[in-house]
Q: What sequence folds into this?
């Protein structure tokens, strides 16, 4: 059975890009694959410098993942810091990747530039090594992500191949998987930029927990263009194409097919907003229910971590053995 691993950071609210680019595909995949999904709280520390924030966000994110359809009876959902093997393997992956390779990561360059005068941690730089450890610990065949994570999966492949050639077959070399529609949802106000938790304004970001009226308002105000033609063309019509792609992803059609049904922007904006509201309303109800029983959420996460550790500890031991580290006794 294909083994799948993918993770999400507990920084800010989950948005439509996270849902269409990742979570929805994890939910579909959990029935065909052996699925592992992590809430990567240690990754969040690369940009966190205040106490008491990451813990509550982690629990809220767990409720969002379960509300979105991850079934704890089927998929293994765990918190990264509950599985210490992630930190342990990340030292090995750091020693298997070069300074030059890490310097070329576009996400590091973007995030470091956005922080300007703020503290840029070494963790922000070595972040892809921890991400590689997340993936390699589970012998993942596939990593379902949005387009922005492609480079991080590619560097993971390089790390796995380099380690295997140095120390013998140890890691499965994973493949990146992105969805046909929804792999890069862009900001409704700035349609050439990806929808991102770290944007300056919330006006172009649709959060999973936004009220229906707020969602409709964001879609009605979405930036388009002035030529008035409904056509799918990311390069010259980014705003309209984003709306078409969102509606396509929500309704299981292709963006070009959706474009054929519209001659004006107004109805397209309205229908895209409606489709998103329909998709998110049941998730919001389940989220509220789940947040009403935090002890149960914690229990589910504890069970997820136990299952994750069974796999992760075997991979870590195999890695130490293949390197030839001296066993403790
Ligand atoms: P994160 O937390 O930023 O995002 C979680 C998932 O959502 C996808 N995504 C998007 N997809 C489409 N359109 C968008 N605008 C959009 N924004 C985000 C991301 O591609 C991702 O799949 N580094 C990762 C977390 C991570 C990870 C891993 C992922 C840590 N270890 C191991 C996979 C495997 C991140 O920051 O994702």
A:
């Amino acid at each position: 059975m294909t083994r799948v691993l993918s993770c999400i950071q507990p920084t800010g609210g989950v948005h439509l890009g996270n849902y269409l680019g990742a979570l929805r595909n994890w939910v579909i995949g959990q029935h065909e694959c052996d699925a592992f999904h992590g809430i990567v709280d240690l990754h969040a520390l690369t940009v966190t410098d205040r106490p008491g924030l990451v813990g509550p966000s982690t629990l809220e994110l767990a409720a969002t993942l379960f509300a979105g359809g991850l079934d704890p009876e089927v998929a293994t959902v765990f918190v990264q810091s509950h599985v210490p093997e992630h930190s342990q393997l990340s030292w090995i992956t750091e020693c298997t990747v070069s300074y030059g390779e890490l310097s070329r990561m576009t996400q590091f360059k973007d995030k470091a530039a956005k922080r300007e005068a703020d503290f840029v941690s070494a963790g922000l730089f070595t972040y892809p090594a921890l991400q590689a450890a997340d993936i390699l610990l589970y012998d993942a065949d596939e990593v379902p992500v949005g387009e922005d994570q492609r480079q991080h999966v590619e560097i993971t492949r390089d790390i796995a191949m380099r380690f295997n050639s140095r120390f013998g077959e140890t890691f499965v070399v994973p493949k990146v998987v992105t969805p046909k529609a929804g792999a890069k949802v862009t900001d409704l106000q700035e349609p050439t930029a990806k929808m991102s938790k770290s944007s300056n304004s919330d006006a172009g970001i649709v959060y999973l927990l936004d009220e229906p009226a707020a969602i409709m308002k964001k879609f009605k105000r979405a930036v388009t263009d002035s030529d008035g033609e409904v056509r799918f063309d990311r390069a010259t019509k980014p705003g309209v194409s984003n709306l078409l792609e969102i509606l396509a992803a929500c309704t299981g059609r292709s963006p070009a097919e959706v474009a054929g049904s519209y001659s004006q922007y107004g109805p397209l904006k309205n229908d895209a907003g409606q489709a998103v509201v329909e998709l998110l309303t049941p998730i919001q109800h389940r989220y509220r229910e789940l947040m009403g029983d935090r002890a149960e959420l914690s229990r589910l996460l504890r069970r997820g971590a136990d299952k994750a550790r069974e796999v992760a500890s075997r991979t870590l031991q195999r890695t130490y053995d293949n390197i030839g580290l001296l066993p403790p006794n």
